[in-house]
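Materials and Methods. Structural model of YibL family ribosome-associated protein. The 118-residue sequence of YibL family ribosome-associated protein from Vibrio hippocampi was retrieved and submitted for structure prediction as follows.
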Amino acid sequence: MSIKQEIQNLNNRLDKCNHKLEGAKSRGDSELITRFTDEADKLSKKLAQLKHKQQYELNKERRGLGDMAFSRELTKAEQADLGKLKKSVKGLVVVHPMTKIGKEMRLDVITGFAPKEF
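The predicted structure was written out as tokens:
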């Protein structure tokens, strides 16, 4: 299971737990209140760990792209025939500005990263 899916599942479980906690508080059931608050705390901790791991992996990928020797904006013609470009440039990584990594790198245009000039 991917980290993204795990985070979504934990968010759903946390939401359900909080909803049940509100019901228990309205009834005044102290046993259920303690059980649901403990469960909500555990889920929150695990959710924070997964989000940190996701951010760490994103930063690691960003650093790897930043360390590549060459990067430049791709022209419209190159974008139109990306397959040909990728075959001609070994190790080319194309980053779109609307992806997570593109937003993290604060890109404005589609950019290509490669170990040597292309």
